[in-house]
Specification:
Blueprint lengths: L13 E2 L9 E9 L7 E9 L5 E2 L15 E8 L2 E4 L4 E5 L8 E7 L8 H14 L5 E7 L3 E8 L2 H11 L10 H13 L7 E7 L10 H11 L1 E7 L5 H11 L4 E2 L6 H11 L3 E6 L7 E8 L7 E8 L12 E3 L16 H13 L4 E6 L7 H21 L7 E5 L12 H7 L2 E7 L1
Parallel strand pairs: 1-4, 8-9, 8-11, 11-12, 12-13, 18-19
Antiparallel strand pairs: 2-3, 3-14, 5-6, 5-15, 7-14, 9-10, 15-16, 17-20, 18-20
Helix pairs in contact: 1-2, 1-6, 3-4
Length: 434
């Protein structure tokens, strides 16, 4: 069911008690924070009426129903061909009455390709300023080949608006340094108190022709600083790039199909950062795509389904040639035979290589220090070949895999106990083409 954007209504929310029997509702997992994996996954769930207004009072601390838990009836993850129920999860409601605020930076592309939209973009920015609620803070910056801070993050809308209007033409240029600007914005937010969430809303088409920074650096810094990125695309956009940047930093990508949609989109992002249900749980371990399904049974309505996806694969779209990662496939002493517990890891690696068909891997085998260097070199090569053969059996082209043995030359633990020697009988993987 398609819903209008939240900004089309002046109402922030409505309590569940105001719902009429049979009134249509919509639930979605708006975004997923997997930065704490494997310890925790955080789902940000929205429940809205047909006008896009958030429905509140369905979980603590705002629900008055002592049996509120029955509304949140089931949670499960699909991992490959397997479905895993999540038996234990918590739910907490956040809305405009919470004292914890959000800190946002609105980052506007002022480069040559988007300057014809300048007046519309500035009007959309002013709309967002007028929505600002305490204790939230908002800043506005622009970029072309240079970054310009038009107004630093602050909670006072009137001061912010005056500063923006005074400086709003700063930052105009011809070229686009998107990655540099995102890094500057992330660093600006990282210096502020770590109130959650801290987010950059960036209006852009995704092009970059002037940055010294890389997309990998943006991704790594955003994850390290716990800053979410919400790209808003317009025109001939780099959709896959912007979608991946949002997903892997915990944000969400939105494509604006018209200039009139910009102000409602900015408003919807802001409101959705203030009105949501936070579902937290310990996820099953799986190095790949996790497909999440949440089932809700709300009074007087049909059962609602909310779905989302997050990725815990050891390769991301931002990785470059030379990256190494471990998928621990351990071997018995003096053996190059795969253990039964290695098979699920092999399956995950095969799925990963099917998802990234241009990636080629070096499969590196290692041993402990018992035996001669020559013997351990041969043993490590046999272990690497065993992994390669298992992947080939699952349909992976052998030309994408290069086995290599390192013997006992690269231990990860002292070879002083059987437990530590076991850690050294392992495999490591290195990207050699992408």
């Amino acid at each position: 069911m398609a819903l209008p954007l939240l900004a089309q209504s002046a109402r922030w929310s409505r309590p569940a008690s105001s719902l009429r029997p049979g009134e249509p509702l919509h639930a979605d997992i708006w975004r997923i924070d997997a930065t704490r994996y494997p310890e925790e996954i955080r789902l940000f769930v929205r429940i809205r009426d047909r006008d896009g207004i958030p429905v509140t009072h369905l979980a603590p601390p705002y629900s008055r129903d002592p049996n509120w838990r029955r509304h949140w009836s089931a949670l499960r993850e699909q991992l490959g061909l397997s479905t895993v129920p999540i038996d234990s999860f918590s739910v907490r409601e956040y809305n405009e009455w919470d004292s914890s605020g959000v800190t946002l930076l609105l980052l506007l592309d002022y480069s040559g390709s988007l300057t014809p939209l300048l007046r519309t973009v500035q009007a959309a920015a002013e709309t967002l300023v007028t929505m600002l609620q305490p204790p939230d803070a908002l800043g506005i910056a622009s970029f072309s080949e240079e970054f310009a801070l038009l107004s630093p993050p602050q909670p006072d809308g009137a001061t912010l608006l005056a500063s923006f209007r005074q400086n709003r033409h700063r930052g105009l240029g011809t070229y686009t340094a998107l990655y540099d600007a995102l890094l500057r914005g992330i660093e600006l937010l990282a210096r502020l108190p770590d109130s959650l969430p801290r987010a950059v809303i960036v209006f852009t088409d995704g092009d970059d022709n002037a940055s010294t920074a890389t997309l990998l650096q943006v991704y790594e810094r955003a994850r390290a600083a716990n800053v979410l990125i919400f790209p808003v695309g317009f025109g001939y956009t780099q959709d896959s790039l912007l979608t991946e940047l949002a997903s892997y930093t915990g944000g969400r990508y939105t494509l604006a199909t018209s200039t009139e949609a910009l102000a409602p989109i900015f408003a919807e992002i802001y409101r959705s950062l203030r009105n949501y249900y936070l579902v937290r749980y310990r996820p099953p371990r799986y190095a790949g795509l996790h497909r999440v399904r949440l089932t809700l049974a709300l009074p007087g309505t049909d059962t609602l389904q909310a779905e989302g996806v997050y990725d815990t694969a050891p390769i991301t779209p931002f990785d470059t040639v030379g990256k190494e990662f471990e998928r621990i496939i351990l071997f018995d002493f003096d053996k190059a035979t795969l253990r039964p517990e290695a098979i699920p890891i092999i399956e995950e690696l095969a799925e990963l290589l099917r998802r990234y068909p241009r990636v080629k891997l070096e499969v590196q085998g290692h041993t402990d220090n018992i035996g001669t260097e020559e013997y351990n070199l041969r043993l490590s090569e046999a272990r690497a070949r065993a992994v390669v053969e298992a992947l080939v059996e699952r349909g992976i082209d052998p030309r994408r895999l290069r086995p290599r043995g390192f013997g006992m030359s690269m231990p990860v633990a002292p070879n002083d106990t059987e437990e530590n020697r076991q850690k050294n009988r392992r495999t490591v993987f290195k990207i050699i083409a992408k």
